[in-house]
Amino acid sequence: MISCKTRAMRNDDDEQNGDVDIENKYYNAKQLKADDPEAAIDEFLGMPALEEEKSDWGFKGLKQAIKLEFKLARYDKAVEHYKELLTYVKSAVTRNYSEKSINNMLDFIEKAAEDVDAYRCMEKFYALTLDIFQSTNNERLWLKTNIKLARLWLDRKDYRQLTDKLRELHKACQLEDGTDDPSKGTYSLEVYSLEILMYAETRNNKRLKVALYQRALKVKSAVPHPKIMGIIRECGENWKGAQSDFFESFKNYDEAGSLQRIQVLKYLVLATMLSGSDINPFDSQETKPYQNDPRISTMTDLVNAYQLEDIHGYEKILQNNKDLLEDPFIAENIDEVTRNVRTKAVVKLVAPYTRFTLAFISKQLKISLSEVQEIVGFLIVDKRLRGKINQQSGTVEIESSTDMDRVQAMKEWSSAIGSLWQTVLNEGEGFRSDEGGSQFTPGGGSGGSGAGGVGMVWSQGSMGGKSGRAKGKGAGRMSGMVGKG
Predict the structure, then answer these.
(1) What is the third-level CATH fold of 1-130?
(2) Would you tell me which CATH number, out of the four given (3.40.50.2300, 1.10.287.180, 1.10.10.10, 3.40.630.30), belongs to the domain 352-409?
(3) What average pLDDT does range 165-175 have in this prediction?
(4) pTM passes above 0.85
(5) b/e per residue, 298-308, with b = 16+ CB within 10 A?
(6) For the chain, what is the largest distance between any 2 Cα atoms, rounded to a whole number of angstroms?
């Protein structure tokens, strides 16, 4: 008869052998992944059957199988096995491990999705995740998954569902009094950035974006991804801050090998132009390898033309690369860059002239007359041009800075002479006598040059009181431009 002790020892041995078998199966399957993914899937899916009760090994096997199925576009099978994976969450694995694993799984499928069917599969994954983790009260993963779902709807331009989801997320990130919950600041900022992008895509009222920006600034205790902060700073036209954030975001994505690095690098180039920086964004060692990348070459050419102030080259690049404007974030902000390029070109073109016509600028720079007038008006208000626009004739007359400086110098000289003359009258010894009488003779006089006289004759003629017309420039004739002479 077998003793209880012997039976227990055999059970322990059986468990150990079972663990060894399932572990061997796992590592054998991993070796097959690269060369024979179909066989690897079968091996991974065979692991749960070897478990006496659900454990880490079955969870790991299902994870690997789902990733391979998604890569092979076996989406229905991936969803089926994801449902099975979620049954391990409540008891077989720890809360932290399950949360991290599920989040990594969702990140994986988000990066790997390339077609409509993949996006549908993603949506099913998100729905299953939300259902299971809402029942386990894991609010953190619930928020992360909902934000991923909102991002998916933004990519698919499903604005109706996106609007409802953003409203739900805002509420989840708020306290009972309606203010943002400081403990959920990072999630709040991500929700704001998604809402800003939605408004950018739908060309919504810019005032709504500004209001969002002001609300986002009030969020405290947040450590968001740099890309999110870049989008928020751009909304507030903080180009320098956006440039810095997009650079950090690019480095993060580049180190992780994420394809998002290309999109963020485009945003970095855009922010560089908006900030007016003279530093080429491809001068850094992190971005330099991408300078000639075909996916970024248009932005490379654009920033080069911008920094060289080559308006015709810049306009030609935009004209020949309409697909660049398919990105709503770039499409919304490139107009500001174009305006800056044209403004610089106007300043450069009119620099040698005292008078010019708006039509001349329009023809030279190949931009509309109304935009030329708007740019010149802005330059005058901004005091970068000293002049006036004649609306009737369509001409602009520039006040010469040299003439203005001369007038100012004459005023200062005249003031100084008057002050000196007053001092001489009040303090000069030559105008006093011991008897208290003045030796000053208005008509001339013979004070001589002795100790007691001033040797001076005062007459109106000596002050150059000759009458006549003031010298100045005539009206002249103008054909488009008049140069400074």
Answers:
(1) 1.25.40
(2) 1.10.10.10
(3) 89
(4) no
(5) bbbbbbbbbee
(6) 155
